[in-house]
Amino acid sequence: MRIQVINPNTSQGMTDKIATAAKAVALSNTTIIATQPQHGPSTVESAFDEIIASAALMDEIQTGIEHDVDAHIIACFGDPGLDAARELSSVPVIGIAEAAFHMASLITRRFSVVTTMSSTLPTAHHLLDRYGFSQMCASVRATDIPVKELESMTSTLYSALYHECLLAINDDGAEAIVLGCAGMADLVARLSSALNVPVIDGVAAAVKLAESLDQLGLRTAKSGFYAAPKPKAFVGRYQHWSKE
């Protein structure tokens, strides 16, 4: 199968890291197509960033549709534009936060999310509520590491991340850790070994869920909530979406 993995920000370094994580767990007959928008923020760390990134993300989804991909993955822990992308595409669209929560729920009753900036905490809590995992989440902790700095993980940054994970386990009662940023995808093995608990990366989780849906022949339901958008006119920078 062909999976389009979209980094919603415009950082090529982050896209490369995400691609490596996705390819590491993909089946031998799965092709990973890693992309990023041509326009938008260099990182997604606020509601404003998310809105701008989501609009550009739709162009990437449409490109994936035109290239007949079998699934799309939105590789940002805020799952930006997820509902809109599912309206556009008939193949599965998976957000990495939703994928990570589902995977965590299969192996523990108490997990914690350890993420980047404190500004992203409300988004994580919102998604936990939306997806129905709030009662299973022991805590959501921020390292206050800027997303951009994850491209070159120093010993100081790793120590800050490790410390928050340790507090989640020892103080909050977490039995597993969900990493709250796609830029942490390359740290799973290192953290899991150091912490001696399961560590879940949403990119890898989303790839395995996409492959499972493909093997089961399941696609996005299009008769209700995710029905295709009605054709209409768009103006200005969004004129290319016009269909009448």
TrEMBL record:
Gene3D superfamilies in alphabetical order: 3.40.50.12500
Top-level EC class as recorded in UniProt: isomerase
Any Pfam family hit: Asp_Glu_race
Superkingdom of the organism of origin: Bacteria
Catalytic activity: a D-5-monosubstituted hydantoin = a L-5-monosubstituted hydantoin; D-5-isobutylhydantoin = L-5-isobutylhydantoin; D-5-benzylhydantoin = L-5-benzylhydantoin
EC number: 5.1.99.5
MF term (GO), any: hydantoin racemase activity
Family: Belongs to the HyuE racemase family.
Protein name: Hydantoin racemase
Lineage: Bacteria, Pseudomonadati, Pseudomonadota, Gammaproteobacteria, Vibrionales
